[in-house]
Amino acid sequence: RAAQAAGLVIMFAEAAAYHAADLRQRPQAFSDEVRAQLEMGGFYSAVQLVQAQRLRRYLIVETSRALAEIDVLVMPTSPVPATPLGPGLAAQASLRPRNTLPFNLLSLPAISVPCDFTTSGLPVGLQIVGKAFAEVAVLQVAYAYEQATAWHKRHPPL
Q1: Containing structural domain, residue 61
Q2: Residue 152 and residue 79 share a domain
Q3: H-helix or E-strand containing 125?
Q4: Number of structural domains found in the chain
Q5: Where is pLDDT greater, at 34 or 110?
Q6: How large is the average pLDDT for residues 62-85?
Q7: Are residues 61 and 73 in the same domain?
Q8: Are 126 and 142 in contact (CB under 8 A)?
Q9: Tens-digit pLDDT profile for residues 82-96
């Protein structure tokens, strides 16, 4: 949970800083949801951002140690299936980045490849994560998986 919180602080604060001028000059260019996230990012304090960055650095070191003996991690891209956006679904939608945000926070290479479909026909992803600077290994595993399966050739009915 701390990694998720740190990741959100860093992501929203950086996005708010990057888009600040556009948000002031052209707020209508952003959807309501994105505009709210950018505005929220502007409310984090310097202390919160520094604490999040410190936790990030600590987690990078610890994760590097933990991954020393493995080549890649393989896991679901999302812990929940895709859902339509709408009122009352925000809590479930907030779970979607649970498996991806930590690796983004830690600057680890990752890729998602199709691995199945839900009973309602929506695609399910398999996330492959590597050690720092191991992009080649991640891509090789993803390619090998796609060569061994046909999920990437199937498409949901539209």
Answers
A1: 1-66
A2: yes
A3: strand 123-130
A4: 2
A5: 110
A6: 87
A7: no
A8: no
A9: 766 565 555 455 555
Is residue 106 scored above 90 in pLDDT? Answer: yes
Q: What pLDDT shows up at residue 1?
A: 78
Joined tokens for residue 56: 């990030």
Does the pLDDT value for residue 39 go beyond 90? yes
| Closest of 152, 149, 82, 85 to residue 120, by C-alpha | 82
* 66 contact partners, CB below 8 Å, separation of at least 6: none
Q: Measure the CA–CA gap between 2 and 20, rounded to whole angstroms.
A: 26
Query: What average pLDDT score do residues 22-39 get?
Result: 92
Task: Give whole-number Cα distances, 146 to 74, 129, 131, 143, 149, in Å.
Answer: 14, 16, 21, 5, 5
25 plus 57 within the same structural domain: yes
Bridge partners for 74 per DSSP:
128
- Calculate the alpha carbon distances from 21 to 27, 38, 47, 64 in Å: 9, 11, 23, 37
| Rounded Cα distance, 142 and 131, in Å | 15
The reply to whether 94 and 45 lie within a common domain is no
Question: 45, 66, 87 — which closes off a domain?
Answer: 66
Contact indicator for 3, 52 with CB cutoff of 8 Å = no
Mean pLDDT in residue range 119-146: 94
Which residue, of 36, 66, 96, is where some domain finishes? Answer: 66
